[in-house]
């Protein structure tokens, strides 16, 4: 009787599989029977990653989220812009009766509003070129320099806005630098640059008037001494607040220095 050799179970399975599959061609993988449905708005599932759709949606929402300047400042870069250096305060004339009003504090100029006095004590916050001539008595200007002589009185002087209560125009310039106009549009057209804190006054040192085509001009008054900006004609102030933040004050002061350099 012959000897029976025991084979491992794995070897037996391999032999059986080889015998069953011998002579049969290999089959190609069959596609899945579940259809692939493209995501609406995309070209296909494979060539449009989910992050691409999200990014496009975010970019679209940012473009329409109010990042552009509020009207009418959105038209300022393409408008004709004139800047005015204004006399924020006209000192009382010698013909006025002395001794009227509140007593003058030590070191203060008689008749000068306290808001302007405080501004001057700070050196005009770097805006000495905007100090009106004759505003400070000779020899008392910050730094010890004498104030320039005041213009001779005139029965009628140009004012901005052009009305009896407008501010006296000391000088003006046509602004053609697009960079300056775009900066002004961005600064004045963004409500986040304003807050509710400001002095209850309007002694404007800087005026802006811009217009496009045949539309009425948009007039703006900027008071560094009072820390606020106001619409002076042609439009309604578009922001909830009008007080300048410290950063806006600093940037507008820098622009004012470019428009009216010291000595002009």
Number of DSSP helical runs:
5
Strand order of the largest sheet: 2-3-1-5-6-7
The largest sheet is: 6 strands, antiparallel
As a percent range, the share of strand residues is 15-25%
Q: Report the span from N to C terminus.
A: 128 Å
CATH class of the domain at 73-88 and 153-259: Alpha Beta
Q: Can you tell me the CATH topology of the domain at 73-88 and 153-259?
A: Dna Ligase, domain 1
Question: What is the overall pLDDT average?
Answer: 71
Q: What is the string of SSEs from the N terminus onward?
A: HHEHEEHEEEEEH
* CATH architecture term of the domain at 73-88 and 153-259: 2-Layer Sandwich
Helical residues, percent = 10-25%
- The assigned structural class equals alpha+beta
Quick synopsis:
By secondary structure, the protein is α+β, with helices and mostly antiparallel strands.
Show the helix and strand layout.
Layout: H1 9-21, H2 50-63, E1 80-87, H3 114-121, E2 159-160, E3 167-175, H4 178-188, E4 194-195, E5 206-211, E6 218-223, E7 228-233, E8 243-244, H5 246-259
Antiparallel strand pairs: 1-3, 1-5, 2-3, 4-8, 5-6, 6-7
Describe this structure as you would to a colleague.
With 264 residues, the chain is an alpha+beta fold. It has a domain of 123 residues: 2-Layer Sandwich (Dna Ligase, domain 1), CATH 3.30.1490. The protein contains five helices and eight strands, in the order H-H-E-H-E-E-H-E-E-E-E-E-H. Strand 2 and strand 3 form a beta hairpin.
Features:
single chain, 5 helices, alpha+beta, Dna Ligase, domain 1, two-stranded antiparallel sheet, 264 residues, 6-stranded antiparallel sheet, 8 strands, globular
């Amino acid at each position: 009787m012959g000897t029976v050799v025991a084979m491992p179970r794995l070897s037996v399975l391999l032999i059986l599989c080889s015998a069953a599959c011998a002579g049969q061609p290999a089959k190609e993988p069959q596609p899945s029977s579940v259809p692939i449905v493209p995501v609406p708005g995309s070209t296909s599932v494979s060539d449009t990653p989910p992050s691409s759709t999200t990014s496009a949606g975010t970019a679209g929402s940012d473009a329409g989220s109010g990042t552009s300047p509020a009207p009418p400042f959105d038209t300022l870069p393409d408008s004709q812009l004139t800047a005015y250096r204004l006399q924020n305060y006209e000192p009382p004339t010698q013909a006025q009766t002395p001794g009227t009003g509140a007593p003058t504090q030590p070191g203060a100029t008689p008749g000068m509003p306290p808001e302007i006095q405080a501004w001057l004590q700070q050196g005009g916050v770097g805006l000495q070129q905007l100090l009106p001539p004759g505003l400070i008595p000779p020899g008392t200007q910050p730094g010890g320099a004498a104030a320039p002589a005041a213009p001779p009185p005139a029965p009628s002087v140009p004012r901005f806005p052009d009305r009896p209560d407008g501010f006296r125009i000391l000088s003006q310039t046509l602004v053609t630098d697009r960079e300056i106009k775009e900066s002004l549009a961005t600064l004045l057209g963004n409500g986040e640059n304003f807050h509710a804190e400001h002095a209850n006054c309007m002694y404007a040192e800087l005026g802006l008037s811009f217009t496009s085509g045949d539309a009425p001009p948009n007039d703006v008054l900027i008071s560094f001494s009072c820390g606020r900006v106001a619409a002076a004609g042609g439009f309604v102030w578009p922001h909830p607040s009008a007080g300048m933040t410290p950063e806006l004050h600093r940037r507008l002061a820098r622009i004012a220095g470019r428009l009216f350099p010291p000595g002009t």
